[in-house]
Amino acid sequence: MQFMLLFSRQGKLRLQKWYVPLSDKEKKKITRELVQTVLARKPKMCSFLEWRDMKIVYKRYASLYFCCAIENQDNELITLEIIHRYVELLDKYFGSVCELDIIFNFEKAYFILDEFLLGGEAQETSKKNVLKAIEQADLLQEEAESPRSVLEEIGLT
Amino acid sequence: MSPSVPLQEMIRAIRSARTQCEERGVIQRECAAIRAQFRQADNGGRSHNLAKLLYVHMLGYPAHFGQMECVRMIASPRYSEKRVGYLGAMMLLDEKQDASLLITNSIKNDLSHSNQYVQSLALCTLACMGSAEMCRDLAPEIDRLLRASNSYIKKKAALCAVHIVRKVHDLGELFAPAARSLLAEKNHGVLHGAVVLIIELCERNPETLERFRKTVPDLVQIMKGLVLSGYSPEHDVAGISDPFLQVRILRLLRILGHNNEGASDAMNDLLAQVATNTDSTKTVGNAVLYETVLTVLDIKSESGLRVLAVNILGRFLLNNDRNIRYIAMTSLQKIVGTDHNAVQRHRGTIVDCLKDQDASVKRRALELSLALVSASNIRSMMKELLLFLSSCPAELKAHSTSGIFNAAERYAPSQRWHIDTILHVLTTAGGDVRDETVPNLIQLITNASELHCYTVHKLYRALLTDISTQSLVQVACWCIGEYGDLLLRGECQETEPVQVTEDDVLDALETVLQSHMSSPATRGFALTATMKLSTRITENVDRIRSIVSIYGSCIDVELQQRAVEYNALFKKYDHMRAAVLERMPVIEKNSPGHTNGESMGDAIKDIQPAKMKQGEPLLALQPANQVCDLLDLLGGSEETLQPSPATGPAVPGLLINTASTAGGDLLDLLGGLEPALLAPAPTVPVYENEGVTLTLSCEKQSDTGLTVTLTASNSTDSDISSFTLQAAVPKSVQLHMKAPSGDSLPARGTAKVTQMVVLNNPNKVNLKMRVRISYSSQGSAFQDTVQIDSFPGLNAAGH
């Protein structure tokens, strides 16, 4: 996978994960053009399109578009499944996820994505394992944060 | 300064901004606060601040001042700070930034951290944005992790290795052994990572591919386990056990089986099993089937298996889901070359997909339809393609028209069909056709001589309806100019004839001439056509004369030049007008680069046959030829007019263009001829036999040019018919023969036949001419040859 974008129906970017090195300017340009292209498509149309020299796979869930750019030899149908799996993970984590969850907890959405995909490829095919790992990492984060405040109270930094 | 707020409050504040300006204000304040916080010593809110900055960055605002903070946070011992720090690194740093190198050391340390979640952060970041240098530095670490760690880390290390190999190809060798041993793991995540890594290694290095071929049995085993095993809740997706892993393994099998009999044999059974057992009601099942089909078609599979695969694709074509249909057509496109007949069976469905709403599906269907056109289905396919063209999306029009033209050219069942098809395309999508279409169509029309009447009628009607499509208008004008007399005759076998007057036709052409929609080239066509009509109509020649003289002062230089020359044709050279404007000969199709100069290769420039037929086509050729020769376009007089490569216009354009570029020459030559005709020249008999006498006189035109007149007479008691003269000259001399005055010699010298030959001797070689005389008399044919070595009026050297 080259990149994944999440954007709303109004074209506002909610998440962007890039797996190829591009300058900020190029990223912005690609994002703008791709968002325009995808938003212009009608509801019943094909989920795949050829854009520039890449294959784009996109799917709309409620008010969010999930859009991936894959290589020419990749399987489009399995990419649809990957998108679906990511949505399921978000759903399980946030409990019936909606766009606002992703807006206000965008860093968590990234953490979940990073437990599911690595370097653009799926790293864990079991939903349970991904969620377990996130849980553990979150616990670790809380532990890391709370002792600090305790120490600060005592006066030790 | 307003106090900074925690992340969520900031997001709320930004979202509640009602205008873009307000939002910018909030963000500016926040960024200032964040910058101040970064400068301060370590406080509790560092991760919150960076997170805020990352949010601001996602909105599109600059955030480069956070880069160093990321570096610092990654080095922090606290997990919460590391987590956000690494996230920031992945978002703000990429390999092009200098700061990215600074985190290499931190990553190195974190790769050996005691806590696996910290290791995981480092691996994730390296795999996402690691530069080639970083990869080289850290590759040994990754290799170590591949061998000795828990499965959580192993699976991540495998994908990290994939990234490293993509960045630094040579390091593939380093990971090959570890990858091999990973295949024995049970953990799906590790297996999946291992397979991805092996795919990457095999794609880059053929030797590695050879080595990994031995793993085919193991892979087949693993697949079998996935396909046949019972329900496994952890990896199940709609009844398919771990489809992600299945798809990967199928892809690896494809690479290993490609072009290798042994490997392909080993996987035949498995592929058949997967193809038949996989449930295809949901997308996920179809994803696995799709990968299976791709694999079957790419390896050396049994024919039975291949048929199975194509049938699966056929089923896909009928699926309600548009995505599946699209996938099917993409795959069929790949095999339409090799398994043509199998794909032909599904032609009906494919053609139906042309009517789909979706542009991607349409594009695929178009490509496939064009590939499936053959001699047997050309008529029905063309009907569908033309129907498609009328509702075609704009981005596909150019491709469709060129595809249709190619198909029509290869498989046209009749000339009339071919012409009809091209006309149909021009009327529907004339704006999107290539430039060669106009000359190609004209060439086609001249070749179909029986259809001239039909064609000109159709084009005339098209012209009356719409003059906006330039290509169509150009062809129409050309045809009306050439065959206008057929139009006026008012009778036609193939189609309903029109009842038009000369004025109507001239009106049509004048509309084109004057319209703003007509391009300069089109107006050129229209003017020439109008001029040509002057010899084909009888009453309104004055009208043409006035049109032509008006355009003599046109601003467009091309039109002006044409008009001035046509004017000259009317005034000074009216006697030549009929000859100049006669019907064009049949144009032969020459491929670019083919020249007619091959004849020059001969030792003796052999007979430049001037077929002295009285047929119309050649009369036009003579003046054309005299012009062509001036430009050194070498051609025998019966050869075709070579389209000028530089301008590439339509052939009729050539006639006029060369006239205009050699405009002065044309008139000069005509001027030069007159004195030759009038002044007496010394005549020398050169041949006398059987009562047929041939005399020769010549006149020097220029330093190198010479006009020779051959006069033949018949002193026998019987008439001679089909009298023809052919001439040959030395290699470097250019020759062309004018039209003879006739081809019959009545008895007892009552009339003579004159033949003019124009010679050009640029190299001033010794001038010789060999003349072949052929005629028939009293029912039998005669032929003779005479060599002329000296020419009267020239010195012995022929100068």
What are its keywords?
heterodimer, A: 157 residues, alpha+beta, Beta-Lactamase, five-stranded antiparallel beta sheet, two-stranded antiparallel sheet, 5 helices, 51% helix, B: 799 residues, Immunoglobulin-like, elongated
Helical fraction of chain A equals 40-55%
The biggest beta sheet of chain A, please? Answer: 5 strands, antiparallel
Poorly predicted spans of chain A: none
Indicate the proportion of strand residues of chain A: 15-25%
Indicate the low-confidence ranges of chain B by residue numbers.
1-5, 591-679
Tally of DSSP helical segments of chain A = 5
Taken together, the total number of domains of chain A comes to: 1
Strand portion of chain B, in percent? 5-15%
Biggest sheet strand order of chain B reads: 3-4-5-8-7
Molecular shape of chain B: elongated
| Chains forming the largest contact | A-B, 58 and 70 residues
> Which shape of chain A, going by the Cα principal axes?
globular
- Per DSSP E runs of 2 or more residues, the count of β-strands of chain B stands at 10
CATH fold naming of chain A: Beta-Lactamase
Mean pLDDT, all residues of chain B: 81
Mean pLDDT of chain A: 90
Distance between the termini of chain B: 104 Å
CATH architecture of chain A: 2-Layer Sandwich
Strand count, sense and closure of the main sheet of chain B?
A: 5 strands, antiparallel
Name of the CATH first level of chain A: Alpha Beta
Membrane topology (chain A): Peripheral membrane protein
GO cellular component, one term (chain A): AP-1 adaptor complex
Family (chain A): Belongs to the adaptor complexes small subunit family.
GO molecular function (chain A): clathrin adaptor activity
